[in-house]
Automatic annotation (TrEMBL):
Organism: Flavobacterium stagni
Signal peptide stretch: 1-21
Compositional bias (Polar residues): 252-266
The protein, known as: OmpH family outer membrane protein
InterPro entries named in the record: Chaperone_Skp, Skp_dom_sf
PANTHER family: CHAPERONE PROTEIN SKP
GO cellular component, one term: cytosol
Length: 336
């Protein structure tokens, strides 16, 4: 019956295709649902949990099998010692345990068992997302038919360029990413997606884009190498200029003899020169600071001396005026 339905579907499809082919070209794509589900993180995580449950159920079944095997082995060993009634009782117990085991296997792994039901419950929401993504993709890209490669429909050949599975995964991943983005980030992401879709629709554009990226990377590498070479040359020139200044300063201060200059082994190291120059700079700086402080002290003393002399002079003037005033008053009082 299933084959007949498949053949009928293919016959109707071929008839519809022939009719549409007369008016325009037909665009057909396909997906691989199993491949898509394996790439969806939510499904992979839930499937892992379900696999753990199934493993636990298998262990329980294995334990029950071992218990039944022990009962059978015990009955086989003790059969000659048991009465007919006890033997029948043991056999009934074993049969009951075996029936329970079969029922448990059907409950967990049967056609309508927990594994199948939970897997269907797990897959359905993700399948709905996939179907919605396929529908949106088919409408946007104007596909006439999109098949599921993993379904019962027989596809004898399918070119890779018509496989939309990765595009569907991309759509699902984008939707998940956008939930954590701002409006600006969503706009940038949409522009990026638009370019990716254009490249995906046109393989030649993808190749050109790849070549452009390679040329751009080569240009950036060349610029970086030139920049590094210029920095190395500048560094070498700075080192040479610094060395010449150090030699000139050492020659002025007489810290390096002419023999030491001509003998490489007797030359002071660059570190020693730096330390010596640093010490000289510190010494000069200290001397200048000391001279400056001394000059400030002397100036301060001069100001204080001038102030003191001015105060003394003013005091003498006041005393002289007071004496003159007293003398004048004395003359006035002495007249008849």
């Amino acid at each position: 019956m299933k084959k007949q339905l498949t053949l009928l579907f293919l016959l109707l499809l071929s008839t519809a295709t022939a009719v549409m082919a007369q008016s325009r070209g037909i665009k057909i794509g396909y997906i691989d649902m199993e491949y898509i589900l394996d790439k969806v993180p939510a499904y992979a995580e839930a499937k892992n949990q379900l696999d753990q449950k199934a493993e636990k159920w298998k262990q329980e079944i294995e334990t029950k099998k071992n218990d039944i095997a022990k009962l059978k082995e015990a009955l086989k060993t003790e059969r000659v010692l048991l009465t007919k009634e006890l033997i029948e009782e043991r056999e009934e117990e074993i049969a009951f345990q075996e029936k329970e085991l079969i029922d448990y296997q059907q409950k967990r792994f049967g056609p309508n068992g927990d594994l199948v039901v939970q897997k269907a419950t797990l897959v359905k929401p993700i399948q709905d997302q996939v179907f919605n993504a396929v529908q949106d993709l088919a409408e946007a890209r104007k596909f006439d038919y999109v098949f599921d490669k993993s379904s019962d429909i027989t596809i004898l050949f399918a070119a890779k360029k018509h496989d939309l599975s990765d595009r569907v995964i991309s759509v699902l991943t984008r939707a998940e990413r956008r939930q954590q983005m701002s409006k600006k980030q969503i706009k940038e992401e949409e522009e990026k997606e638009r370019k990716e879709d254009m490249i995906a629709d046109n393989p030649e554009m993808s190749e050109r884009q790849k070549q452009m990226e390679e040329r751009k990377a080569a240009r950036l590498k060349l610029i970086e190498e030139k920049k590094q070479a210029a920095e190395d040359r500048k560094k070498a020139a700075d080192e040479k200029r610094k060395q010449q200044l150090e030699e000139k300063n050492n020659k002025k201060t007489g810290t390096v003899s002419d023999t030491a200059k001509t003998t490489t082994a007797d030359k002071p190291s660059a570190t020693d020169k730096k330390e010596e120059d640093k010490a000289k700079v510190e010494e000069t700086k200290a001397a200048r600071e000391e001279a400056k402080n001394k000059s400030l002290e002397e100036r301060k003393k001069q100001i204080e001396d001038r102030k003191k002399a001015a105060d003394e002079k003013r005091k003498q003037q006041l005393e002289a005026r007071e004496a003159a005033k007293k003398a004048k008053d004395s003359i006035r009082t002495s007249k008849p």
